[in-house]
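User: Just a sanity check before I run the rest of the batch. Below are the structure tokens for the first item. I only need the designed sequence back.
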């Protein structure tokens, strides 16, 4: 099993290195680019198969125990070890990462951004595989410094994917992304050094077993503040979220937006659960109410921002709207973590996976809509201002023009708003249950207020997502206003490559919603162990 995990991390790294070999893909530039894209599909497909093999060999009856362990000396002077392993918390995230990266690679074969100033597919494939290496490494390593290294590896490829393959305003958006995350990471590194040097080890398993023993209350608070700041930027927690809408809007849909929302945001919340909850429990208890308050503000703020974008005449971009919705959804994840209860933390982990599946699907669908209509602007899609004044549009009539695509968008929207029976329901519900009865030492009246505001956020989420469905899916396809341009021709419905990329996300959204034990059965024992057996 440990060989499978090592191969899982090495395969995309070797694939990324292969894209740098001169002449490997042939002398013809166009043919070489095509072969590079197929290499990306093959490598990410192999990585997904390794992840499935890892899951198949995982002992679900002992999901709290770290499995597939590799633990060798790396930097003896600092007592840093090459420590790898998976448990019931990290395994679903590894599978999600491998799946989404493979689907992005498949989709990119047909829908890679191109243009006179856009680099070729070879560089794109190399960056995608390097990005996958960093994402997988973040969820597999069990040493603080290795975690920091993997956490940072994703920044450079994502920066170039946004800056070189992105859309309008890609340069400023990419710069803002990397400046925010690098600043947070620099402070996070100080927290890692403080925690590791004070505790005498950087091993995350050893730190979790000690459960804060030997660390003063002041040290724990400083550790949570420093490490938490870097994690909050990536989470993204309000008010450190402002890089996200620009990055999502400018990023290429096929990789940037899907992986940014589906995986990179999970790295921040995963760090809270994996590192801070078990290693600095007293510091988390002191600062948890503030984390919960920021989380609730993020829920309400993200929902109100989406309502403003969906309003007729606001010229709201669909990608930007989904980015703001991620601020709200990740607020539920942070609220669940801030309850410090097994119920809340399990809800947060479930919501992490659900958000990755649903939001990944939403970004794929928005990319397809933009390809067909030539725009993701809601007012242009709905025909607002096309002759009768702003707000008078009939809707983009997706149900009439491409019924399968329209049905998938409606499915993803109701899954995102938390319809029972779909994946988006359970995580947010459990996060609110955890807030109803928070851990000992936390103010229950304050958390009841947080729960009430989170409940209001679910109503606001339903309001803006149903408005999106109304404006994009409904309308008369024969009305010339029901398109981005009056001359927009009829277009094809869901294509074969789109069906291949989207079907797994639809199926898993249904499975997780109807059978939540498939995830909760893995995470419950592991969370109890991290919380000290509570």
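Assistant: Here's the designed sequence for the first item:
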């Amino acid at each position: 099993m440990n060989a499978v995990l090592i191969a899982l991390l090495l395969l995309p790294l070797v694939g990324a290195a292969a894209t740098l070999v001169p002449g490997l893909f042939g002398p013809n530039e166009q043919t070489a680019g095509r072969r590079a894209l197929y290499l990306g599909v093959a490598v990410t497909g192999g990585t997904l198969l390794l992840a499935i093999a890892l899951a198949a060999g995982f002992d679900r009856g002992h999901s709290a125990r770290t499995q597939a362990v590799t633990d060798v000396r790396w930097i003896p002077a600092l007592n840093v070890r090459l420590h790898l392993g998976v448990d019931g918390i990290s395994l679903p995230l590894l599978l999600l990462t491998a799946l989404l990266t493979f689907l992005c690679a498949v989709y990119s074969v047909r829908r890679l951004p191109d243009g006179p100033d856009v680099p070729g597919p070879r560089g794109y494939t190399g960056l995608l595989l390097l990005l996958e290496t960093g994402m997988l490494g973040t969820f597999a390593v069990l040493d603080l410094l290795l975690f920091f290294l993997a956490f940072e590896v994703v920044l450079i490829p994502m920066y170039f994917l946004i800056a070189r393959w992105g859309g309008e305003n890609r340069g400023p958006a990419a710069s803002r992304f990397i400046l925010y995350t690098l600043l947070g990471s620099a402070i996070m590194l100080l927290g890692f050094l403080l925690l590791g040097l004070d505790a005498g080890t950087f091993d995350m398993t050893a730190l979790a077993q000690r459960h804060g023993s030997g660390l003063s209350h002041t040290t724990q608070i400083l550790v949570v503040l420093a490490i938490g700041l870097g994690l909050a930027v990536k989470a993204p927690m309000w008010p450190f979220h402002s890089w996200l809408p620009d990055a999502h809007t400018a990023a290429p849909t096929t990789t940037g937006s899907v992986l940014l929302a589906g995986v990179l945001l999970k790295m921040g919340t995963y760090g809270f659960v994996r590192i801070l909850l078990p290693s600095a429990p007293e510091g988390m208890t002191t600062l948890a109410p503030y984390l919960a308050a920021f989380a609730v503000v993020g829920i309400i703020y993200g929902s109100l921002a989406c309502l403003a974008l969906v309003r007729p005449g606001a010229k709201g971009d669909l990608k930007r709207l989904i980015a703001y919705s991620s601020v709200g959804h990740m607020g539920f994840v942070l609220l669940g973590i801030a309850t410090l209860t097994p119920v809340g933390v399990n809800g947060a982990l479930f919501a992490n996976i659900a958000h990755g599946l649903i939001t990944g699907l939403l970004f794929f669908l928005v990319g397809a809509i933009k390809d067909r209509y030539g725009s993701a602007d809601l007012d242009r899609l709905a025909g607002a201002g096309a002759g009768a004044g702003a707000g008078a549009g009939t809707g983009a009539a997706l149900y009439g023009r491409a019924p399968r695509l329209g049905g998938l968008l409606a499915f993803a929207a109701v899954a995102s708003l938390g319809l029972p029976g779909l994946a988006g329901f359970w995580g947010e519900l459990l996060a609110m249950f955890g807030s109803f009865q928070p851990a000992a030492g936390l103010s229950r009246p304050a958390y009841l207020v947080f729960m009430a505001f989170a409940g209001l956020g679910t109503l606001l989420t339903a309001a803006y997502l149903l408005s999106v469905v109304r404006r994009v899916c409904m309308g008369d396809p024969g009305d010339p206003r029901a398109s981005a341009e009056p001359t927009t021709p009829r277009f094809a419905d869901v294509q074969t490559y789109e069906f291949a990329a989207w079907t797994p996300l639809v199926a898993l959204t249904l499975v997780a919603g109807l059978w939540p034990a498939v995830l909760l059965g893995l995470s419950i024992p592991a969370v109890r162990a991290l919380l000290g057996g509570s």
